[in-house]
Design a protein that fits this description.
The complex is a heterodimer.
Chain A: E1 4-13, E2 16-26, E3 31-35, H1 42-50, E4 57-62, E5 65-66, E6 77-80, H2 92-104, H3 114-118, H4 120-137, H5 152-164, E7 170-174, H6 182-199, E8 202-207, H7 210-216, E9 219-224, E10 227-232, H8 234-239, H9 244-249, E11 256-262, E12 267-270, E13 273-278, E14 283-289, E15 294-296, E16 302-311, E17 316-321, E18 329-333, E19 344-349, E20 355-357, E21 369-370
Helix pairs in contact in A: 2-4, 2-5, 4-5
Chain B: H1 6-32, H2 50-57, H3 59-92, H4 97-109, H5 112-122, H6 129-136, H7 146-153, H8 166-191, H9 195-203, H10 209-220, H11 222-237, H12 241-246, H13 260-270, H14 274-301
Helix pairs in contact in B: 1-14, 2-3, 3-8, 3-11, 4-8, 8-11, 9-10, 11-14, 13-14
Chain lengths: ~375, ~300
Amino acid sequence: MGQISLQGIQKTFGPTPVLKGVDLEIEEGEFLTLVGPSGCGKSTLLRILAGLEAPTAGQVMIDGQDVTRMRPASRNLAMVFQSYALYPHLTVAENMMTPLKLRDIGTAGRLPVLGPLIARSAYRGLRAKVNETAETLQIQNLLDRKPGQLSGGQRQRAALGRAMVRNPVAFLMDEPLSNLDAALRVHMRAELSDLHRRLKTTFVYVTHDQAEALTMSDRMAVMMDGHILQLGKPDDIYRNPQSLAVARFVGSPAINTMPAEIDGAGALRVLEVSLLGINAQAGPVTLGIRPEHLSIDPAGAFSGVVIHRENLGSDLFIHLGVNGLGQKIVVRAAPDTRAEIGQTLRFSATRDKIMMFDGSGARLPEQTMLEVA
Amino acid sequence: MPGSRAYLWFIAPALILMIVILIVPIGIAGVLSFTNYSLGNAGMDYVGWENFEKIFTRRSYEKMFGATFRYVFVVVPLTVLLGLGAALLIHSLTRFGNLYKTIYFLPVMAALIAMAIVWEFALHPTIGIVNATLEKGCGTWLEAWGWYAQGCAKTFPLWLTDRDYAIWTVAFIGVWQGFGFNMVLYLAGLSSIPPSLYDAAEMDGAPTGWERFRLVTWPMLGPTTVFVVTISFIRSFQVFDTVEAFYPQGGGPSKSVYVMMFAIYEKAIQQNLMGIGAAITVVFLAFVMFLTLVQRWLVDRRTHYV
């Protein structure tokens, strides 16, 4: 249960194409994250999967069944919204009971006042389920409160509870952590991962925060401009981005990029330094290298002036202004590294970690790089 | 600065204005309601509860309460329901919403006196468009309806001058004039409902519009409804312009449209009986005060979500 397949999904709003043919296979029990900058279509894709939005073209399959034309209610998916979307006039318990009530109790049983009398035993069953879910999330003490009386984190749990209570095929989460403060967000990250391990249900998680995608998911799909640019394990995407856009989006601080040139003799020239022997067509390229693959090195090939130091306690990020380069270079260093603002430092790069991208932003294969002569 | 009295300077203008233009006149009306004061008289006599006794015993005041409550209990439910219905329909439109909003809101903006004159012509028994249109239906299947057949055989109602129809006709005009206002209030309420709640309802398994209305729209409109109902009550209790325009003398056929505001005007201004006019005013204020307190209680208890 919980195998989802999206085939050739397209969506246009008026003349604007938002999704330009997305194919995605989500495996059973997987934690898959859709990540991308705002406006990339990730939320629209999730809403199409949920059934809240109809695709212009393409198919949505859940467990081998075509659900493209099916109402959201019949798809048995649960969604957690960015704003939590709890019903403000109902208590947490009533909020959690709503999906069960709408599914399991007939129209007569849902009448106000009379309903609970007519369908007494059914209600008892539902209350037991609500209590059980509340126990899992440790919100039993909040059941009688209204959403307005809860803190952000508590509302988040209540919304999760409402989603969990009827054992859906998959959980869809639309930036559920973005309304929480930083500390709580980190905490909830771990908690959601833990929840996923316990429930063993498919999670489809949408976020613009690459850190959430990297820390929580089994696989992540980086989306931009209505396309999935790359789909894979977080580790692979971080280490092995297939395009400059993905390399830039994933990782914090962002990857350093430098314009470079492959000359006719096959040498890669960057900032007037001839770096590597290259087995590729001559022409301009872009180099990408992550801050942790640069190091302060008195014998390094490059030099820059310290313009900012960012001390995170465990790491020190030194921002260097390099002559002839538009943007600054960020180097990760040990926290005890001496670096005063205005000081000129030399640095070097770990050669096999340098990534090359061609003019259109596509990754050039590693094999083309040769050891420097 | 502790002990500073600067705050007095800040509240004084509002406080003075409120006392001078609201509290004092109400107090004076309260005092006058126990007298037989007439404008221009040098003195007045204290008459105790006599004025109030008259209001609650005399036949003409019984008619006043009858007309007022008939009007209020027709106009309030209908304007609220029609206002909600129109707002829901307009809210669901993707085009022409503004056009409909304007059309429904026009009667609210129009001067009611002028509109009353138009209605008077339209409802005229012989030359009015309403009865002329009804007569066109004579001889068709519409005559299967007894009331209609009777109208064709004899004559259609005189509407404004028939004592069985007058108050309902005036109430109809009140509904026509008032529901656009409620519609605007409901539209504001509807647009403040977060769309994600409807998404949540859809995900939770509320596939029909009625289910979503019950689960999201109606509860979320709770505060708006309390306000709309209260304001409709107060506005209907205040009805005056139409009555004055249709029946400048005496409150309609056998005083069947003798509403409270008109009674105050007739007694206190036309007949210069300030004492009794003030007494009706005090009763009127008591109604409005009661409604306001009910509203406050409801807002605090029932619909305050945050």
